[in-house]
Design brief:
single chain; 294 residues; 13 helices; 11 strands; 15% strand; binds NADP nicotinamide-adenine-dinucleotide phosphate
Length: 294
């Protein structure tokens, strides 16, 4: 018995050692938070970084990059606001080069589908000399619950998406793929394009959210200009609101209306369905109507 206990302990230690010390950029965000949680739960040493995170990291302040990289052997790279923004790819490329110079040997990049800036960033990360994995993602399910929940609480899903179909993707799947790539070298050199299992219109997404919440949610199609104006009413600076609205209108213009097998290829299992996300998000209370402030 004692022998078995020692063997189990040794195995646990070697498993723990196999997780590289990992800098997670955007560790307060939708995918970064889940990646950091999974690595920590598995016994990994995580360096959670962002402007407001435990470790200060700001894409706009390169002086914060080297201290954040201290001791890191791997990095999960999420760029904010978006890789499609001007200068983003060059910034990510400069960071990847610094990371490799500081001893990082594995980089996993969260990327977009079919956006020029994102593909440029992918190329620069691949050229850094590190082992790399690219995780290209469809529109996240959790955009509805973690970024744009407020209008949905009031029964409206407004987006500049027309009647295009999109394979909405659960960020739990993204986190599983990113963690697999950070932990296991067999994912090196892979470009995983991840989608959910179904193509859905925004009207269908609104219906499924409504069914899960128990109140009607109506899809209100908007132009990019109208949507930027709405984002400004939630306090987003004008320039960012315009850029985000244009980007959403671009990725929802039909170019990405096809399914891929990326989750299955990376994880050997199918992606999670939107209905499961909607049910869990509704159960979490995120769409409950808040009491008006006194
Ligand atoms: N949302 C989608 O549907 C989707 C689809 C495909 C790809 N993506 C990609 O996913 C990435 C994340 O997008 P998201 O909208 O879902 O955001 P998010 O990850 O939920 O939030 C952004 C994260 O980045 C951090 N951050 C913001 N500005 C930063 C800066 N200047 N320096 C360092 N960290 C910063 C934030 O933390 P602090 O505020 O503490 O800094 C936060 O942790 C983007 O690159 C986007 O292109 C998103």
């Amino acid at each position: 018995m004692e022998c078995l206990a020692v063997a189990a302990q040794t195995l646990a230690m070697s498993t723990t050692r196999s997780i590289p010390t990992t800098l997670v950029i955007g560790a307060t965000g939708k995918t970064g938070r889940r990646v950091a949680e999974r690595l920590t739960a598995a016994g990994g040493d995580v360096r959670p970084a962002s402007r407001s995170g435990a470790i200060r990291f700001d894409w706009q302040d390169p002086a914060t990059w080297a201290p954040a990289l201290s001791g890191a052997e791997a990095a999960y790279i999420t760029y904010a606001p978006d890789l499609a923004f001007p200068g983003a790819a060059e910034t990510v490329g400069a960071f990847a080069d610094l990371a490799v110079a500081r001893g990082v040997r594995r980089l996993v990049l969260l990327s977009g589908r079919d956006e020029e800036g994102a593909q440029h960033a992918e190329g620069l990360v691949a050229a850094s000399g590190a082992e790399w994995t690219v995780v290209r993602c469809a529109f996240f399910d959790q955009n509805f619950s973690e970024t744009f929940a407020e209008p949905i609480r009031h029964g409206v899903l407004s987006f500049p998406g027309g009647d295009t179909r999109e394979p909405f993707l659960d960020v739990e799947d993204i986190a599983d793929v990113a963690v697999a790539a950070l932990r296991d070298e067999r994912h090196a050199g892979e470009v995983y394009e991840l989608t959910g299992p179904r193509l859905m219109t925004l009207a269908e997404a609104a219906d499924e959210l409504g069914a899960a919440i128990g109140r009607e949610v109506r899809y209100l199609p908007m132009t990019a200009e109208q949507y930027a104006a709405e984002l400004r009413t939630y306090g987003m600076p004008a320039e960012e609101a315009t850029a985000i609205a244009d980007l959403i209108a671009e990725v929802l213009d039909g170019r990405n209306a096809h399914l891929t097998d990326g989750v299955e290829r990376a994880l050997g299992r199918p992606p999670r369905d939107f209905a499961d996300f909607a049910r869990e998000a509704a159960a979490s209370g995120v769409f409950d109507l808040r009491e008006a402030a006194a």
